[in-house]
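Run log // design_07
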């Protein structure tokens, strides 16, 4: 029997215990982080695919809507209403007879064709993303306008009276006629006639399959809308052509991984658009997907074969794992377009392998150090010290939930334990008066706790309760204090969750900022999201308070992003971590500006520039606030880009932004008409009502010729 020293057994057991623990922790941490990385990657790919499909769907729906509107506008009944009253008697006789295609072409070749041509040009000027718009009958295209980029627009019209005549008009970017030429030739267009027959058979709008455009040798699709007369007889067709390279441009904004690919294909397996993060892969729209010779594309297609969902999935090719998501595009009309995003899983988990190696190296070093320390320290001494150190770290992070009880024969250890316990109790009491999250962030940032600050770009947030003084005068103080506490609890929790720092409570107002003490590149985005969440939560609280017979708190919020001074301000005996500068004052002013426009959240131009890709905003005005001479553009924050109410808010923002441009260019009568139309859809919109009053005022008493549309505000 071999005898060993007890010390050797202790060291061996301690070593095995540390080694097994380190391996277990590494395994658990790596597995957990890998799962989290894959889950985050899946959500990211799904989110990016949804953003892309929303953009494409909006693009296609816009084209279809514009085409349908033109078709309705070009119906003979609409054109008849627009003609002079003097032609009614002359046309009444001819309208009683059935019109042939040649007669329809003759009609379009007269003054109505000029009206149609101008309508096509006006529409394409408004929607430059379309390639071309055409109008014609069963025989030929009678009018076509195409966008030529910086060169302007090309308008071709065909008149068949007395023979075939093609007139080509060249317009510059401002729709001014620059050049005109006339030629003759054949008017037959096989593709147009095929589309016309399909419209004639179905009587509905339809989308063509992708085809090669004759003028640019690129691929595109066309939406075709029928033109009916008052007796529901087909008299013509409007066709809008969309180059597929526009779809490819949308792919450029998809945030892929470093080796990811994204492409759009149709139901026949034809490639419509393609984008790769790094790989130099040549492709041509219209070619088969299989021609790319990328095995992961074929594997991804098999992964979704027979499936009806578009969840992110994983698959393997040649022992290499990939993540993929497929999102159908709502092109409808039998097109079955599909967006596919594929990314190697290693793009998201590769860094974990490097981290694992570092952890293993550090674990090995710690193991050797632990063995050496175990030879020098007795277990009864080292264990209490380790526990005390752990407790101190918890206190350092302002965590007071741990319960530690140590009884040691060593007087110094016992004294240290008692002192730490008393310190924990005292700090726990004082933490109720201090912003614990701010203290944790200051500790984590490593900033020196001393008087001073530094200039840094932050986003500042101010909120205030409307008519709080009147509310406080009409309610008992103790009831109002409880209600106000619930209000502060809700808003503070949201600001904390969105990585903000609550600076102070000023009566019923809340001041917060984002970007310090911990760096945050998304400070403006987090601040705007917090503002929307606060308003949503306050509405929920208001419903509860109203049900309980209490006054609701209607809150106004102002947000501004700017370079400010941030740091410890005050005296050596008492200081406050806060921000100073003109940007702070402007954010406070913007909160008050809500009173004028009767809005809930106003953001500055600086903030808008940083969040416009994430939120829906509408322009409110260009103003100068009290105490400043420089004007700024302000916006109303409406919703997140992916919120349920986003489509309605987007429509409101787009339409009002167009109205505002008319207002700024002194077109008040046109703006007033559009405001009335918008108020029919959104009857409670306070901003529209405000601009109705302004337009009426300026129509009655126009401002000076140097009026620039800037509103000078005097409120604080």
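design_07 sequence
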């Amino acid at each position: 029997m071999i005898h060993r020293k007890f010390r050797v057994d202790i060291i061996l057991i301690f070593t095995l215990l540390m080694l097994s623990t380190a391996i277990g922790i590494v395994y658990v941490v790596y597995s957990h982080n890998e799962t989290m990385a894959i889950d985050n990657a899946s959500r990211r790919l799904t989110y990016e695919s949804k953003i892309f499909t929303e953009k494409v769907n909006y693009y296609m729906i816009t084209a279809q809507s514009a085409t349908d509107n033109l078709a309705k506008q070009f119906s003979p009944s609409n054109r008849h209403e627009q003609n002079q009253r003097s032609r009614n008697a002359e046309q009444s006789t001819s309208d009683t007879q059935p019109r042939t295609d040649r007669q329809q072409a003759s009609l379009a070749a007269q003054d109505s064709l000029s009206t149609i041509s101008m309508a096509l040009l006006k529409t394409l000027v408004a929607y430059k993303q379309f390639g071309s718009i055409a109008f014609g009958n069963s025989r030929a295209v009678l009018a076509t306008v195409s966008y030529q980029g910086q060169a302007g627009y090309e308008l071709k019209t065909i008149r068949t009276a007395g023979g075939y005549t093609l007139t080509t008009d060249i317009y510059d970017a401002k729709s001014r006629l620059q050049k005109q030429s006339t030629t003759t030739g054949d008017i037959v267009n096989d593709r147009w006639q095929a589309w016309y027959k399909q419209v004639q058979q179905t009587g509905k709008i339809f989308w063509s399959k992708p085809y090669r455009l004759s003028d640019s040798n690129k691929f595109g699709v066309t939406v075709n809308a029928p033109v009916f007369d008052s007796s529901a007889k087909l008299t013509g067709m409007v066709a809008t052509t969309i180059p597929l390279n526009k779809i490819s441009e949308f792919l450029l904004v998809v945030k892929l991984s470093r080796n990811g690919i994204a492409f759009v294909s149709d139901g026949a397996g034809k490639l419509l658009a393609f984008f790769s993060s790094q790989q130099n892969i040549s492709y041509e729209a219209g070619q088969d997907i299989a021609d790319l010779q990328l095995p992961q594309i074929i594997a991804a297609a098999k992964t979704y074969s027979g499936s009806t969902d578009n969840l992110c999935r994983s698959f393997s090719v040649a022992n290499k794992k990939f993540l993929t998501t497929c999102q159908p595009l709502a092109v409808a009309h039998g097109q079955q377009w599909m967006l596919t995003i594929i990314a190697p899983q290693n793009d998201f988990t590769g860094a974990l392998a490097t981290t694992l190696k570092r952890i293993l190296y550090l674990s090995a070093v710690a193991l050797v150090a632990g063995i050496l320390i175990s030879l020098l320290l007795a277990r009864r001494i080292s264990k209490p010290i380790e526990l005390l150190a752990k407790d101190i770290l918890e206190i350092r992070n302002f965590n007071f939930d741990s319960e530690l009880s140590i009884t040691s024969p060593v007087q110094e250890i016992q004294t240290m334990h008692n002192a730490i316990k008393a310190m924990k109790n005292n700090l726990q009491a004082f933490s109720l008066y201090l912003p614990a999250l701010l203290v944790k962030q200051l500790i984590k940032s490593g900033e020196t706790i001393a008087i001073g600050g530094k200039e840094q770009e932050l986003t500042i947030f101010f909120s205030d309760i409307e008519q709080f003084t009147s509310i406080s005068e009409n309610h008992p103080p103790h009831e109002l204090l409880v209600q106000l506490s619930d209000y502060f609890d809700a808003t503070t929790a949201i600001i904390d969750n969105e990585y903000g720092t609550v600076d102070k409570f000023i009566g019923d107002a809340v001041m917060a900022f984002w970007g310090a003490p911990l760096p945050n590149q998304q400070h403006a985005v987090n601040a705007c999201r917090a503002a929307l969440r606060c308003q949503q939560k306050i509405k929920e609280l208001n419903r509860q308070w109203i049900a309980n017979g209490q006054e609701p708190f209607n809150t106004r919020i102002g947000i501004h992003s700017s370079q400010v001074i941030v740091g410890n301000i005050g005296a050596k005996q008492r200081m406050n971590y806060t921000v100073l500068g003109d940007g702070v004052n402007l954010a406070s002013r913007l909160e008050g500006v809500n009173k004028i426009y009767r809005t809930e959240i106003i953001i500055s131009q600086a903030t808008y520039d940083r969040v416009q890709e994430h939120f829906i905003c509408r322009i409110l005005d260009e103003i100068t606030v009290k105490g400043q001479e420089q004007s700024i553009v302000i916006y109303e924050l409406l919703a997140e880009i992916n919120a349920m109410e986003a489509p309605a808010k987007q429509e409101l923002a787009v339409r009002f932004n167009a109205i505002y441009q008319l207002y700024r260019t002194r077109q008040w009568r046109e703006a007033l008409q559009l405001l009335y139309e918008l108020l029919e859809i959104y009857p409670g919109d306070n901003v529209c009502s405000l601009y109705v009053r302004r337009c009426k005022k300026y129509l009655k008493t126009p401002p000076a010729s140097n009026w620039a549309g800037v509103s000078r505000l005097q409120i604080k």
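The two ends are 91 Å apart (CA to CA).
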